[in-house]
Amino acid sequence: MERLRSPLRSRVGGLLAAALVASVAVPAAVATTATVATPARAAVALNDSEVTANLWEWNWPSVSAACTDHLGPAGYGAVQVAPPQESVSLPNSADGAHPWYEVYQPVSYRLESRFGTRAQFAAMVTACHDAGVRVYVDAVVNHMAGANNPESVVGYAGTDFSGPGYSFPAVPYGNGDFHRPGDNCPTGGGINDWNNEAQVTSCELLSLTDLYTEKESVRTKIAAFLNDMIGLGVDGFRVDAVKHVKKDDFAAILGKLRNTVAENKRPYVAQEIFDGASNDALKARAFTGNGDVLDFAYAKGLRSAFQGSISALAGIPNWNLDAPSANVFAMVTNHDLERDGVVLSYKNGTDYVLANYFALAYPHGKPSVYDSFTWNNRNQSPPADGNGHVTDTVCGAAWNCLTRSTGIKGMVGWANAARPVRSVSDFTTVNSNVIGFHRGDRAWIAINDSGSASTATFTTGLADGRYCDVVSGPATASGCAGGTVTVSGGRATVTVPANNAVAIHVDARPGGASPSPTVTPTVVPTDKVATTFTVAATPAAGQDVHVVGNIPALGSWAPADAVRLTAQGDGTYRAVVDLPSSTSVEYKFLKKTAAGVVTWESGANRVLTTPSGGTHAVTETFRGDTVTGGQIATSFHATVTTSYGQNVYVVGNIAALGGWNPANAVALSPADYPLWRATLNLPPNTAVEYKYLKKEPNGAVTWESGGNRTFTTPASGTRTNTDTWR
Questions:
Q1: pTM of this prediction?
Q2: How many CA atoms lie within 13 Å of 142's alpha carbon, on the beta-carbon side?
């Protein structure tokens, strides 16, 4: 969870999801050698799939239920879960009660956490195995809890520790088990140069107590913790901040691990090596000798394509990715990235869904699908009780459950069917936002990332006959739950709905029957109508525009579940929503801030009736939408190179710019790093002075040099300031 040359998710009390270091008191009897252990229970048949469901920060009973009811039947090969060890409990953090990042600050190696007890963890592993799903655990092996935590805080199981004193008696770790200034860390304790391998591997990441992994005694304790989980059935590990552990040290730890219980083979390893280093020794591909690596560049490339032109996806073989396909764990987003805006997230609506369809279809790495809680600020807790224990997952307003959606489940089956073919054929670009391709004679997909349905003829590679469109519904004993596609002469003429996809594969045929080549190519429409909502609106700084209505697809009048509309650049906002056909729908538009403050448009509910098929569109103007006082939408664009953990702000002489108070400065977004941006409303005809500043995770401020920047806002219209840090 390290971060390089991009903004930190939080202070160390608000620490960026920090690297995972699992710490749990391990029974003395736990073996630490790499010999094959006798399975604790009979081997089980696990799904033959490379697809992982990342259920981040779900509690153990909820993961158990998901494996049994959804992941196993859908064919997922694994589930990734959050760090299970006892972590620090922060009820009174500056970032709110029990922020999500506290689970990345271990205090012991006990399997007692905010997600459940050791018994619940073990039961979860068993339930997932019984459903055919492997379990991969977030493992924290670089550090323990922060050295800056107050002495008054304890762990979730009540374990006492001292971060400032480098004392974790429940493991036990003491002063000599950590890198310290003047020991192997060549700085005052932190990392000053993110391309200096000695600093990156031997100094403290965000004030987290850095384990002395060169020591055999430390390696043995880490391996014992991991072996404890392997003994409970864990099949692999997603290891955080591996860049901060010397490669040879991590290899020595892996050499002490047992084989897995369920399959009697080496545990799967996916290493987080955050991108951005110019030192070849710190680049992800340098770590593949110890396991797979997470591909951050791939996730960022997907965002660029789905927010630009998806025809660019044809060029993936030429992208500068983190490592070869065979060595990566692929993703659209994860808990670090989604909070930084550098990749797609659930907040991006259909772009996010379509990107996940693509990641499941394209043969790059081992694909994963991410589900977690919704959030309005980067540090907030998952839904929890008063003591910080995460409550059961209820899909909807508070939790995202993309992994169990019809389309994603269908694409998991698609990925499994296509797996034997690791190449793409007949990549077809219908236009800049409509593409199609197939994987040999196994599977074909078309994706439409535009607001209008598109009809085209594609080469599918499949044998002639009828197939079920698995995005709209699975194959059934009597036919297809969704649409059908007919292939004739290896080709199919298909209408791909707006902001949607159509996908078929050899294992999804109506009633399981052999295909018949005599049917005319077509797509049978489903009972959904792709409805485009477009509204002219002028939201204030920090507001997004949404549509909400009386049916579940429009949030059932709950603002938290309203559908976010995407800015079109011309003062309008748009989204495409699948609504039930031949249905009367009531709806209204609203504006909402990240904190959840809602402004409803005025007037009565709007009403539309969807047709029996095809598509539908409404174009409206936000009612009661006036800009108070003729404010000027003013954009600040600053090119700034930052160090690890820094954020960039603008501050100035008027209240909207913080009145020269750095505490009230306006944060800029790093989504287009190194270009930092923000737009806010300023009064017209006003002389403005301003400067940029950087803030460190500890709150320290660095002002840019030179005199105050100045401009005068116009009487009307907009204003853009384009600057470079001095």
A1: 0.69
A2: 31
